[in-house]
Amino acid sequence: MPKNILLFMTDQQRADQVGYAxxxxxxxxxxxxxxxxxxxxxxxxxxxxxxxxxxxxxxxGRYSRQIGTLTMAGDLFPQIPTFMQAxxxxxxxxxxxGKFHYLQTYPWSTPRGCGMxxxxxxxxxxxxxxxxxxxxxxxxxxxxNYCFYGDYLxxxxxxxxxxxxxxxxxxxxxDTADHNYDKALPWPxxxxxxxxxxxxxxxxxxxxxxxxxxxxxMKVSFCGPHKPYDAPQRYLDMFPMEREDDFLLPEGQVLTEGQVLTExxxxxxxxxxxxxxxxxxLIDDQIGLxxxxxxxxxxxxxxxxxxxxxxxxxxxxxxxxxxGVPWRQALNVPLAAWLPGAKPVGKRTGPVEIxxxxxxxxxxxxxxxxxxxxxxxxxYNDRIPCRSFLPVLEGRAESHRDxxxxxxxxxxxxxxxxxxxxxxxxxxxxxxxxxxxxxxxxENSKYIRYLDYQLGExxxxxxxxxxxxxxxxxxxxDDPAYGAQIRQARLRMDYVVDHYPAAQLTWATACAADRNxx
Length: 518
Description:
alpha/beta; Alkaline Phosphatase, subunit A; Arylsulfatase, C-terminal domain; 2 domains; 28% helix
């Protein structure tokens, strides 16, 4: 029988925002929990806690430093192989439905409606390895871009109104809790037109038509619970407004006038937390409908199912919002997997990197991940760091990594009224917690190196004992008791940087053979 593969993906969902993580999180996700009943990983780490870098890393099996997507600016170069292309070569029909965000061609200042047009560019996007594409730009991004969801809204006469709503929600991105612009307004239109409801419906339509004798790969990539926090009222009503003041602050944090969070800042975050839970519940319902369809068509028993997010969301912890920082709230993501015909293996606590999904999918399809994702020329196109966790899913191994590596340089726009030095000061660490950083994380420790330092200056470093301090609040970099672990972490980080350089690419088109001179 065909070995089908279904990847569910969310946008900006923390690792603790799933039901199986524990009742204290308040998430209600029975269908995701059903997937997780076979296996779930509590230490899955995105390779870069920003949308484009994480998503391009996932499909290429490489670190973002290798493929030129270290931050959210520019596009994934089409010469980099993807696992979808490898699946196509062995007969898979491949579907890409929902948010891709492999391209960030235009700057954030691009006028409304003047950005990308994935509808017009659908044939070019198929180069990444998709036979069918229905791409959403994202909720904020539909204001500037014209994606398939935007086309759906346009045909229903809703595009202008929805764009106006997203702007009203507070379209600006913030960083610290006093730069939190999202109003957490409920979705004011029909629920059937909500972006993740439409995404789920398109996925079901394609699965309904898929020939049962052909293997498929399908990515269903939802846009929630990313801001704007805009859950429909019916889903908001499922969750009470919880005003639990449990925001985490690290040692050394310095805030304006010594405050932690003002009551106004807390209230905004309470509304956003509630809406995030509601959005996740809506997504879980869509996942449930897709699983029901697979069961009805007798496809579920032959389908590997994976659930993951691209990165997390600070939601006020460390006085931060959004992403791009090395704290667990932004770095760790939920990862659940259901392997057909295998015995459940339950919770796994060892490190996983998000791009290991690429290796696992290829391994399940019978392909060697390194061979499938490599090119023989030019240089460094054969440095493939992803590793399959299929042996873990099959119960043949407890874990497959000793440590996970992540990196970032969060260069999103800074608003004219934002003083960046003040943002850094609010992050603590004597104002040295820069946007650019690298981190190495084991099951029991985290080492961070910040990269905004001058020649001759020592980089600012942090080290956390995750066994004693799982919330990462006490920096032990100067504690001699951790000296050996810190030295090992530094060596591991240097190894990754030294052994996984950027892939060399080509662009020249002229060929001497074309002129028949010899």
